[in-house]
Amino acid sequence: MKKALALTLAAALSASLLAGCGGSGSSTSTAAGGGDAATAEQTGLPAYNELTVGEDYTDLTANIKFISHRTDLIEDGTFDGYVAAFNELYPNITISYEGITDYAGDMTTRLTSQDWGDICMIPTTIPLPEIGDYFYAMCDLSAIEADYNFADNRAYDGKVYGIPSTGNAQGIVYNKAVFEAAGITELPKTPTEFLDALQAIKDNTDAIPLYTNYAAGWTMSAWDAYIGGGATGDAEWMNITMPQTHDAFAAGVPTGDTESGPYAVYNILYEAVKRGLTEDDPTTTDWEGSKPMINNGEIGTMVLGSWAIVQMQDAGENADDIGYMPFPISVDGTQYASSGADYCYGINEYSSDDNKIASMLYIKWLTESSNFSYDQGGIPILKSQEYPETLAAFDGIELVADTAAPTELSDLGANVQRDAELMLNSDQTHVMRIVEAAINGDETLDDIVADWNEAWNAAVDENAPAA
C-alpha cells in the first residue's frame, strides 16, 4: 500500500510542480485580490523548512491561539498532552486551543477579522487564489514536496500556506461483528455488492445497515470526497478534467461504467435510503451518539474518511470490532481509493513575527514529531513514517491523490462549482437533497442529476479556459 501511494503521489506531484505547496499554484507569490503575499525573504523570517525544532528559537516567548475543528480532542485533553510535550522544548511558548463545532462556516466568517488568533485549520471555503489574503506563506513547495505527502493541498503560486495535519484514505467505517453476523465474508468492491451487504445486515441483524448522520449536516458533504480518483481511477478528474466536462454527474461518466464515477457514488446513498437500509428518520440522527452505536454493533456502516476510525474505536469497549474498508467502487476490475489531506494548519498573515515563528515551530513539531497522524489512524504526512494498522484493508488498493490543477487552472474548479451552486466538499445541501428525495419519492436521482448537469454545463462554458 505504501508503495502504491508513493507512486501515485509522485505522479500527482510531478504533474503539479507549478502548484503551490499545500494546494495549487506555481512559482511566484502573488495572491489574487491580495497583492504580493509576504515571503520569508520579505519578512526576514526563516522559512518553515529552515527551522529545526528543539534547536532553533528555544528561548522564544510567544502566546499562541489555535482554533480547531477537533472539539473532541480539546474536550478530552488530547491537545493538552501535545502542548505539554512541545513545552518541554519550548517552555516560553504558551498555546491555547479553541474548538468550533460548525467549523467551516464559523471560521470562514472569523477570517474577515485580522485578529482571530494565530493558527487555524484552513477552511476549504477559501479559494486558493485568495488564500494569501488571510494566511502566511510558510515556504516554497519545492522545499518540502519530496518529504511531505499532500504537500500541495493548500498552496498557491508555489508558496505553502497550509501544512496538512494528517492524510485521509476515503473509505467506509464498519463494524466487523455486524458483518460477520450478517454473513458477509468478503468486503464489497462494487455498489451492487455493497447494497447487497446492507440488505444482508437488515435481514440478519438488528443493526442499522448504513447510518447517514443526516442531521449533523457537515457529515453529508463527506460523500463528495469519493467522486474523484477513487470513483474514476483518474488523479486528474477532480481538479482538472471535471471542471471542463459536460454532464459530469451523468451515469457512466467518465468511465463508461454505471458502477463507477460520481453518479455511482451518489446512487449508493439514494438507493440505500430508498430501500430502507438507513435509519428510520434521518432528521433525528445524532453525530456524537453514533460513535458508541457503531462501537457496540447498533450500526453496520458509516461513510466517513479514515480520520473517523479512532473516534469510533474510542467510543466504547469494542475497539477491535471497528474496521475500515475501501469505498465499494472498481474501475475495469481495479479498486481505487481517494486519498488526500485532512484540514491543513494555517498561520494568520497578520500575526506578529514572533507568533509566526512560534506557530511554524509548533506546526512542524506536530507534523514531524508528535505522531498525531498515526494516533488518529491517518496517513502520515512525512513519507518516511509508517501507516497505522487501521488501514490494513487498503493493502493492495491503489490510492489516488487528486492532482492539483496547474496555475492557469488553479481557480477553475472553484469558479465552476460556485457558478453551478454545487460547492463540493464544503456545502452539504446537494447531498442532503438526495436523502430527502429518496425518502419523499418526489425525485429520482436522474432528476437531481439532470438539474446538476444543467447548472454545471453552463458554468463549464462560462469559465472555459481561453484556447
The CATH class of the largest domain is identified as Alpha Beta
Quick one: biggest sheet?
Answer: 7 strands, mixed
Structural class, by secondary structure, is alpha+beta
Would you tell me which CATH topology of the largest domain applies?
D-Maltodextrin-Binding Protein, domain 2
Count of helical segments? Answer: 18
Taken from the alpha-carbon principal axes, the silhouette is globular
Radius of gyration: 22 Å
- Output the CATH homologous superfamily of the largest domain: Periplasmic binding protein-like II
Give me the CATH architecture of the largest domain, please: 3-Layer(aba) Sandwich
- Strand percent estimate: 5-15%
The CA-CA distance between the termini, in Å, is 40 Å
What is the strand tally? 17
Overall mean pLDDT score? 89
Topology:
Blueprint (H helix, E strand, L loop, with lengths): L1 H14 L14 E2 L3 E2 L3 H4 L18 E7 L2 H5 L2 H10 L5 E7 L3 H8 L8 E3 L17 E2 H4 L9 E3 L2 E6 L2 E3 L1 E5 H7 L8 H14 L3 E3 L18 H4 L4 H5 L20 H13 L12 H9 L3 E4 L6 H5 L8 E5 L3 E2 L2 E8 L2 E4 L5 H16 L3 H4 L22 E4 L10 H9 L8 H12 L4 H18 L5
Helix pairs in contact: 7-8, 8-11, 11-17, 16-18
Plain-language structure description:
Strands 3, 4, 5, 6, 7, 8 and 16 form a 7-stranded mixed beta sheet that branches. The chain has 2 domains: 18-166 and 342-389, D-Maltodextrin-Binding Protein, domain 2, CATH 3.40.190.10; 169-339, D-Maltodextrin-Binding Protein, domain 2, CATH 3.40.190.10. Mean pLDDT is 89; it is low at 1-40. The chain is built from 18 helices and 17 strands. By secondary structure, the protein is of the alpha+beta class. Helices cover 34% and strands 15% of the residues.
